[in-house]
Design a protein that fits this description.
The complex is a heterodimer of chains A (114) and B (114). Chain A is an all-beta fold. Helix content of chain A is 0%, strand content 58%. The chains are: A mainly beta (114), B mainly beta (114).
Chain lengths: 114, 114
């Protein structure tokens, strides 16, 4: 069973609208949580990284939240643009040794339509 | 400043063959991680190299092996290819001693096994 679950699996939104993606995780011990954006055929690109002591982090129109008690995170996209069409992957880093082993979710495929 | 580069971009092999994929890390990075990403799934961790040694390994068979060179570039070797090895292989580089190392991904190598 995947220890990082994302929902919804896919999402279609109109350009200019907002959307929120969800991530639930069970991995422990927890070090930090990251959101990545992956365009089709490209490698993932980091959007945000949050440690257990942070509950929100923004990067432009992207805002991530974290509730380490309930082990839930969300990624909110504001005023979506066509270029936001991509897969958004939630990644949890384990507190293993000094570098943190990463556990990836399956991603949420977002399609922004004109 | 060059980012992470991978070669080749695409590769077609037949079952039983062997393949070598190559990765050059982002300038200044000393750690290379390899991931396998099946279609519609999140990346799965294969292994990580730091200071020319394998530091961590995921749940992949011994058919998957790697190497890191003194210039920090890395190779992923897969022997006795199976149909199920068809995937996008991603390389990510980072700073080995950073507290929360951010992994920068390359564009990937698309491997097709026939």
């Amino acid at each position: 069973k995947n220890q990082v679950e994302q929902s919804p699996q896919s999402l279609i939104i109109l350009e200019g609208k907002n959307c929120t993606l969800q991530c639930n995780y069970t991995v422990s011990p927890f070090s930090n949580l990251r959101w990545y954006k992956q365009d089709t055929g490209r490698g993932p690109v980091s959007l945000t990284i949050m440690t257990f002591s942070e509950n929100t982090k923004s990067n432009g129109r992207y805002t991530a939240t974290l509730d380490a008690d309930t082990k839930q995170s969300s990624l909110h996209i504001t005023a979506s643009q066509l270029s936001d069409s991509a897969s958004y992957i939630c990644v949890v880093a384990l507190l293993t040794d000094s570098w943190g082993k990463l556990q990836f979710g399956a991603g949420t495929q977002v399609v922004v339509t004109p | 400043d060059a980012g992470v580069t991978q070669s080749p971009t695409h590769l077609i092999k037949t079952r039983g063959q062997q393949v070598t994929l190559r990765c050059s890390p982002k300038s200044g990075h000393d750690t290379v991680s390899w991931y396998q990403q099946a279609l519609g799934q999140g990346p799965q961790f294969i292994f990580q190299y730091y200071e020319e040694e394998e530091r961590q390994r995921g749940n992949f068979p011994d058919r998957f092996s790697g190497h890191q060179f003194p210039n920090y570039s890395s190779e992923l070797n897969v022997n006795a290819l199976l149909l199920g090895d068809s995937a996008l292989y991603l390389c990510a580089s980072s700073l080995g001693l950073a507290e929360y190392p951010i992994q920068y991904f390359g564009p990937g190598t698309r491997l097709t096994v026939l």
